[in-house]
Design a protein that fits this description.
This protein has 180 residues and is α/β, with parallel strands linked by helices. It is 49% helix and 16% strand. Strand 4, helix 6 and strand 5 form a beta-alpha-beta unit. The longest helix has 19 residues. It starts with 6 loop residues before the first strand and ends with a helix. 31% of the residues are buried. The mean pLDDT is 91.
């Protein structure tokens, strides 16, 4: 498999349970786990929520808590975006230290809200991906972040509507398109 060089930031979205993490993991297998990383715009929010007593369960109440906290911190000091920028800088510094910064690498950023996606896309020269699964429109949501995943014009749409082998084929095509 022939790759180009450098970093690609991929903002990934989709309703809960549609296969986002599975897709990211398959891409990591293709490019090499050391060259693929994941960060969510709610990772730092989760840390804060746990300090406040959240049990880590992503049920309806937990998802609403995380969404509400993200809104608060976005308005207050844009912490979710700043966390992504700091995380990326640290990872790129590590890659440069080990002299592998020119090797193709991917940072997957999980984000939900269309306005946040657009800001991150512009700031990081990122591409956007929506993972879909049949019936995902019917998935009940407890917050605006999960509700509005279809309210954005993504660069790529991945239909996770077959078996795992098909998803692996689509991930291979996707990774090759990033570095061709």
């Amino acid at each position: 498999m022939k790759f180009g060089t450098g970093l690609r930031v991929v903002i990934i979205n989709g309703k809960p349970g549609v296969g986002k993490t599975t897709f990211e993991d398959i891409c990591a297998e293709i490019i090499g786990h050391a060259y693929c990383n994941k960060r969510s715009t709610v990772d730092k929010i989760k840390e804060i929520a746990k300090e406040g007593g959240w049990d880590g369960v992503k049920d309806a109440a937990g998802r609403k808590l995380l969404s509400d906290l993200k809104d608060i911190f976005t308005e207050y000091n844009n912490m979710p975006m700043n966390d992504i920028l700091l995380y990326l800088k640290g990872w790129e510094d590590d890659l440069a230290y080990y002299n592998v910064g020119d090797h193709p690498h991917i940072l997957f950023v999980d984000d939900r809200e269309p306005e946040h996606i657009e800001k991150l896309k512009n700031k990081l020269n990122a591409i956007t991906v929506l993972i879909r699964r049949p019936g995902d429109e019917e998935i009940e949501t407890s917050n605006h972040a999960d509700e509005n995943v279809f309210e954005y014009d993504y660069d790529y749409y991945i239909d996770n509507d077959k078996d795992l082998d098909r998803l692996k084929q689509m991930a291979t095509i996707f990774v090759n398109s990033l570095f061709s």
